Amino acid sequence: MSATSLYPAQSMQRRKINNFTMGARGPKPTPTAILKGRGSWRGDINKSEPTPVLEMPDPPPFLDMAARAEWDRLAPAVFEMGCLTAVDGVEFGMYCCLLVKWQETRAFLKTNGETYVQRDKLGAIMKIVRFPQAETLRELQADIFRTGDRFGLNPAARTRLNVLPEHGSHMNGNQRQGEARKHKIQAREAILRV
After folding, report:
1. With CB atoms 3.0 to 4.6 Å apart as the test, which of 11, 35, 91, 177 could cross-link to 43 if both were Cys?
2. Count of CA atoms in the C-beta half-sphere (13 A) of 91
3. Rounded to the nearest 5°, which phi and psi values hold at 117?
């Protein structure tokens, strides 16, 4: 039996070439739910993609009080959009922790500024140095935007999804896709009648 049949998920992620393990090439594949939400025909290609249960996850135990407050503020809205499932709790918890860390870093920089004066032993100014928190803030912002895209938490990410607001999140992805197709067909028929 080959290694690819024993570990099919791993074989899709990495390839061995000349005894060197390489990562998968190209961009990460778009999840089927997002493809279906966009109305793409490619949403019907992967029939074996796992689909998690659409239920509100419990907050992970590693959240502190501030991160838990972010969870309580954001999780219900993200769940209502249909972008938070039972298996996403840990990743969404990490997103909440990133938000708190960003807020703390921003508060430090607001209080102390982005730079400080470095002096020599005699007290003379040697140079002006940036606080490391300034770079940390930039990195946290990038991580927040990247993680937020996965949950539809910015306008650009939401424009890639086609969720029908009048039907709410009680519908699963297949039902939303069917409704979206029905509306597109009705719109085309209305145009053809004119």
Report:
1. 35
2. 14
3. -95, 130
Cβ-contact 160, 34 below 8 angstroms: yes
How many residues make up the chain in this entry?
194
Q: What 3-state DSSP class applies to 172?
A: coil
pLDDT averaged over every residue in the chain? 77
Closest by CA position to 68, among listed 39, 29, 87, 95: 95
> Between the CA atoms of 91, 151, 144 and 95, what dihedral angle is there, to the nearest 10 degrees?
-30
**CA–CA gap between residue 23 and residue 82 (Å, rounded):** 31
pLDDT surpassing 60 at residue 6: no
**How big, in percent rounded to 5, are the helix, strand and coil portions of the chain?**
60, 10, 30
What residue type is 194 in one-letter code? V
What span, in angstroms and rounded, lies between the C-alpha atoms of 162 and 120? 60
Structure confidence at residue 1 (pLDDT): 45
Task: Return the exposure string of 157-174: e unless at least 16 CB atoms fall within 10 Å of the residue's CB, then b.
Answer: beeebbbeeeeebebebe
**pTM, entire model:** 0.64
